[in-house]
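I am still learning, so would you mind making up any protein sequence you like and the tokens describing how it folds?
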Amino acid sequence: MLNYILLPLAGRLGGGPLLFIDWNPSIEVFKIGSFSVRWYALCWILGLLGAYLVMRKLYRMEGIDPAPNAKGKLESTGKFDPLIFYCFFGVVLGARLGHCLFYEPDYYLSSGKHIIEMFLPIKFAPDSWSCTMTGYSGLASHGGTIGLFLALLLYIRHTKLRAWVVLDLMGLVASLTSFFIRMGNLMNSEIIGTQTDMPWGFIFHTRESMVNGQLVARHPAQLYEAIAYLAIFLIGWHIYKKQSKSLSTKEGNEGESLVGTGFYFGFCLTTIFLFRFFIEFLKEVQGGADDGSTALDMGQMLSIPFVLAGLYCMIRRPGFKPTNS
């Protein structure tokens, strides 16, 4: 799957060869007859499963579900189980609509057939209603974030949990799912970066990676993002565990929990979308909405309000409720 190749590139480094990574994996993990499992789908499943397991652990640690009953024994409150349903549909619908409306509105809003394509994994023939199954060919992280936020509001309304507690816990796990999704993009050889002479440049075997009919080395922007999102998850988890340990040794107001203040939610938004803003400089333009006529691309412009909202939550901590001595 991963081969290292020497590519002699004249005129660079004195005409000597450069070492790049030849990246051309199969998009399928395995195939049995007509049934196949693709890496992208598997990465999505792993991302959702990882978030599910970590979130369940956080619910237990925070005493949300299970919670002590009147006799002091732990029993299920039924508040965790609906969460995966709300998150799954919120993320998928939001990501799909985000791609269609943010990046390709001219196409998807141009006809009734194209509007249907926004919601169903199909593509109609130009002059008829015949269609083929294509899968969802475009998902946008900004739309997924908006969809997740709206879904969480519905979940909070349904369960009557404190909004900032749920948002903070989700802020702790969201970057883990983002890591797996970007690894799925890497396995699909999509969201490629700009050309590079760096020795870790990837040779993606796609039409988008070609320049003048030749494959060129490019920044593995998906991998950069995946590494960053995994680091964000680990840093957030470290802060949470360190503070939990600190709280267990303190009394009174000295050790207020950050969960429920908005800090972790803000940390997630700020770090993910700040990195997303800067990594866009190393990405090829995506979607029809970006034509190079503006200093910032669509991904960067969409990232700015998320970063500002995240900084507000981290600094002001809108969910903080001081405990009286």
Observations:
- The CA atoms of residues 232 and 271 lie 7 Å apart.
- The chain has two domains: 40-75+164-196+219-248+255-288+296-325, 80-160.
- The chain is about 50% helix and 15% strand.
